TrEMBL record:
Origin organism lineage: Bacteria, Pseudomonadati, Pseudomonadota, Alphaproteobacteria, Acetobacterales
Bilayer topology term: Multi-pass membrane protein
Pfam families linked: Cytochrom_C_asm
Species of provenance: Falsiroseomonas selenitidurans
Gene that produces this protein: ccmC
Keywords: Cell inner membrane, Cell membrane, Cytochrome c-type biogenesis, Membrane, Transmembrane, Transmembrane helix, Transport
Name of the protein in question: Heme exporter protein C
């Protein structure tokens, strides 16, 4: 991993992977969305409203999986202190906050016709809202310091503390009595939905996951390039200041 974490190697690898990743992500997402909206059957109870599931469920998975990735990057940052892990975590946080916001918004749209209300303070919804605030807190904290290293350290500590919330999000429907339905796809015995709905859901999840990865990779690549350009500009500015600093002494000697 250290070999690929080298900024130069990362830029070359990301530059080669990104076009293929974007193309695959857009193709799979278009395929899954068309399958879900046009060909997947309506639910016998929820009717056409169930189609919100094809966005809501992948967003929920990405919100939790992305935060787990943020925790892994935070461990790498605190132990090995590699700046690429800091940059990746910094660029991941806004994307994670966006998918968590989409999860909450689509959940509210789905909850209104099913529960009769946009929001209830049950364990699953509240813990996902806490997850959204953790994403926002990390994104704000790493940008709150003039020294980027201090911001990265503070953000990493916050991300690791926030990992405690992930089991609460996952198992809240099992630990407490909530309006939110229990897991129907990740059950150990068998999925709780028909394959005509399960397969397009999985394709949508793969497509959105690839898009998520492409966005984070592109943002991280841009951040690495921006930091290298800034470092070059600072080096040029220092070189330009040296003759100016020596000029008065030369003139005085003359």
């Amino acid at each position: 991993m250290h070999r690929f974490a080298n900024p130069g190697r990362f830029l070359r690898l990301a530059g080669a992977v990104l076009p293929w990743l974007w193309a695959t992500a857009l193709a799979v997402t278009a395929w899954g969305t068309a399958w879900a909206l046009l060909y997947a059957p309506a639910d016998w109870q929820q009717g056409e409203t169930v189609r919100i599931m094809y966005v809501h469920v992948p967003m929920a998975w990405l919100a939790m999986g992305g935060y787990l990735g943020l925790g892994i990057l935070s461990v790498m940052s605190l132990i090995w202190r590699h700046p690429l892990a800091d940059l990746a975590a910094r660029e991941l946080a806004p994307v994670g906050a966006a998918v968590t916001a989409l999860c909450l918004a689509t959940g509210s749209l789905w909850g209104k016709p099913m529960w009769g209300t946009w929001w209830v303070w049950d364990a699953r919804l509240t813990s996902v809202l806490v997850l959204f605030f953790l994403w926002l807190g990390h994104a704000a904290l790493v940008r709150a310091f003039d020294e980027t290293e201090r911001g990265a350290r503070a953000g990493a500590i916050l991300a690791l503390v926030g990992l405690v919330n992930l089991p609460v999000v996952k198992f809240s429907v099992d630990w407490w009595n909530t309006l939110h339905q229990p897991a129907s796809v990740t059950r150990l015995d068998a999925p709780g939905m028909h394959v005509d709905m399960l397969y397009p859901l999985l394709v949508c999840a793969i497509g959105f996951s690839l898009l998520f990865g492409a966005i984070v990779l592109a943002r991280t690549r841009s951040a690495v390039m921006e930091r290298r350009i800034r470092a070059l500009e600072m080096a040029r500015a220092r070189r330009a200041d040296r003759p100016l600093a020596a000029a008065p002494a030369t003139l005085a000697g003359d």
